[in-house]
Amino acid sequence: MEGLTDPLMRQILTQIAADLGRPYDWSVSEFIRVTQHVLPAHVFYKYVPELHHDAKTASGTPIHVQLLGSEAQLMAENAAYAAELGAPAIDINFGCPAKTVNSHRGGSVLLDEPEVMYEIISAVRRAVPAHIPVSAKIRLGYTDTSKMDDIRGAIADSGADWLTIHARTKTQGYKPPAYWDKIQNFNSLSIPVIANGEIWNAEQAQNCMMQAGTQHLMLGRGAVTRPDLVARVDNDNNKNSENLTTLLWTDLIAHQIKFLEGAAKSDVVLVGRYKQWLGMLTKGYSEAQTLWEGIKREKNRAVIISALQASV
Description:
CATH superfamily of the largest domain: Aldolase class I
Number of helices: 13
């Protein structure tokens, strides 16, 4: 999720999940755009600083390196270099709906070219050592779902180790609902299929798994909105209602302060990123809405931290 799950956010969310006793199996980096050459090491380290620490966050969650591009050989060479730098897995982004990305022949626009998808995935698979998984992230299609069979065939023949599906087309964007039942069209693949899209609570997670016909989920914006979502889904999935894990607003305050004290190019950037997160938290916490009303025009980081501490 470009601009949302950067290294600082990954550090915070994976730590919360670990503290709640349900760490993420893995997390995926923001996409790294591959265009004209093999990227230098400092670019990979910028997007995935966890590569300096065995490709794991401080809480021990592995970070998979996600690449986005349209030239198979160039994608393969960059994937091989990422693996050399320590990437535990390579994920290929065919799901990004951003107009700028699509206009440069990246992300979900390639869903209209299943043969190119096949070339990219298979080239990356050949270039990366056999013990390092290669996965793909897709949507149900670009403008519609008419090419789902061709996309499934491309994935089947590519050598991908698993497939993550956001259950909407590019045209449908992020507008509810997500069409979880259409994920079943991919369940004939011999690899795990991971469902994604419009999962904001444990009930929706259960409905998604049932309709998609898979037990594998990827949490996205819902995990940013409710940082305890992974634990709540796990508790619900295991019928463990007696030990329901809930992250209260008071518990979340320290993590928000840690975010505001994190590294960034400037206070302006950091405050902007925090307000983006706080805006999403308003969907999960009434206290966040109250805080948002008080600091939405505030630019001073110290003032925001004081307001946050006072919101208990």
